[in-house]
Every structure is written in structure tokens, then in C-alpha cells.
Specification:
The chain is an alpha+beta fold. The chain has four helices and three strands, in the order E-H-H-E-E-H-H. Strands 1-2-3 form a three-stranded mixed β-sheet. A hairpin with a 2-residue loop joins strand 2 and strand 3. The longest helix is centred in the middle third of the chain and has 16 residues.
Length: about 80
């Protein structure tokens, strides 16, 4: 995993794209905070599949998930 500033990625996009194609993951920082992650298409598909695996098996608690989401939205108001 590589960390780079948004400006550095903008100025050297080809280099970072090549790195991602080789299997690396790029964490993009703006003002010192993580704002994005650049990963290959194959990794993104497997990440989403892994995330959904519990849902597809029915191995999750929908009430707990809903309560967690509502807490996030209530605190934003």
C-alpha cells in the first residue's frame, strides 16, 4: 500500500495508475487526511463481494445495521 498526496497523484497519474495495475493500492491524502483509495477493478469487485458475503448468507442483523445507520444520520443534524 502506498500513500500519496492528491497533488502528487494529479502530477504523476500515469505512475500511480501503473502501480495500481501491478496490484498496489494507493491511499490519497488531501490536507493530511485520507480522502480516497485507488485500487484495481479486480480488487474492487472482490472487496464488494466479500462485503456482501454476510448479507447473502443471511448472516447479519438488519435491525442492528439500521440502528447504526440511523445514529450516523441523527448525529449529522
Amino acid at each position: 500500500m502506498t500513500t500519496a498526496t492528491a497533488t502528487d497523484v494529479q502530477n504523476n497519474f500515469g505512475k500511480y495508475l501503473q502501480s495500481v495495475q501491478s496490484g498496489d493500492e494507493i491511499i490519497i491524502l488531501k490536507n493530511g487526511k485520507e480522502v480516497a483509495r485507488l485500487i484495481s477493478h479486480d480488487k474492487s469487485v472482490s472487496y464488494l463481494t466479500d462485503s456482501l458475503r454476510g448479507i447473502l448468507k443471511g448472516d447479519y442483523d438488519d435491525k442492528a445495521t439500521r440502528a447504526e445507520r440511523m445514529t450516523k444520520y441523527e448525529s449529522a443534524n
